Amino acid sequence: xxxxxxxxxxGVIALPLFAxxxxxxxxxxxxxxxxKIGRAVEMWAEEREGQPPWRTYVTRGGTRxxxxxxxxxxxxxxxxxxNELVTPRILACxxxxxVRVASEFTTVSSGGYMATGLRxxxxxxLISLDNSRAAPDFLxxxxxxxxxxxxxxxxxxxxxxxxxxxxxxxxGWTNAVHGQNGNIxxxxxxxxxxxxAGLKTAxxxxxxxxxxVNLHFLRAR
Length: 221
Prior knowledge:
This protein is of the alpha+beta class. The protein has one domain (2-218). It has helices at 2-45, 74-79, 82-85, 196-204; strands at 70-71, 125-128, 139-143, 151-152, 158-159, 161-163, 182-186, 191-194, 216-218. Strands 4-6-9-2-3-7-8 form a seven-stranded antiparallel beta sheet, with helices on both faces. A two-stranded parallel sheet has the order 1-5. A hairpin with a 4-residue loop joins β7 (182-186) and β8 (191-194). The chain is globular.
């Protein structure tokens, strides 16, 4: 009985430590996923004037319509990077509750990222429509738990984009993934894990950089 009690006591002590270790592991894995997304975009853009698929016209191999608009879906834009990403597993953050992990970039029902039952449900990262390789500090992507300010028509041939930040709606994080923190990916490939203060610092200078004085993001889901 004494041994059982001792083991139980050790278990009570170990559980919080295990939880912290698991959280740290999830954050590290997510950070690495975002870094790989940045590398994939860089590889894709090397022969396309430094622009990601969603800012490259269809006639040049991207997803931006040469005329008219399209519905904005982050998962669809990620499929344009399938060769560079190699596996859709990196699009699912282990700390993202409810995310489903796809195993291949196909439409097969059992694990295909483009299957109806996956797509957005297998995506943990949003995409920024306001980015340029010429401006290294521009946001390219990030964890999906950035607060959104509704859905609006947007530029770049994409409709139904989310306007995150304007003069009336300050930025922030929800608790959906890493609590009041998250990863942001810069246009030059840098990844930063930041809290509210870091997010505000990263976004405030964008005012005046965009056509509507807004930032436009595509939701992960």
